[in-house]
Specification:
This protein is an alpha+beta fold. The protein has 3 helices and 7 strands, in the order βαββββββαα.
Amino acid sequence: MGKATHHLEVHAPAQACYDWWRPLTRLPEIFSDVESVEALTEDGSRTRWKVAGPAGTTVEWEATITEDAPPHRLAWTTVADSEVTQSGAVRFEDKGGNRTELEISIEYHLPAGKLGEAVASVVADPQRKVERAGTEFKRVIETR
C-alpha cells in the first residue's frame, strides 16, 4: 500500500480548478506516466485508465467517481473487479482573491505476482509524482 498527498495554492478560482479536474480525462497533461483516461459513460463518472509500465508495457484499470461535490471535492476509485486498486481525491478550498488551495492525494494497493511488479514500477515514488502533478496543474491553470 502507498499513499501520497500534496498541498498547493494556485491563482485561479475554485470552480475553474474543479472544472479542469472533473472530467479526469485531462490527467495525462499533469501526470507524466498516465497515457490516457477515457470516459466510459456519458457523464464521465466511469473511466478507463492506461498508465505506462516497465519496458513499454501498459497497466490498465477502470475507475468510478465516488464523490463529486463541486467545486469543493472530487474523488475516484477503481471498480470492484479491477486487478489494480487505486484511488484519488482533490479538495479545492476557495481562499478568496482568485486563490484556491488544493489537496491532491492518491492511494494504491499492489496486487501480487507479475502485475504487482508492473504496478510497483508505475507507482514508484508516488509523493514525487503527486508533487510534480501539482506543479504542472499550477502551470496549466494559471496560464489559461
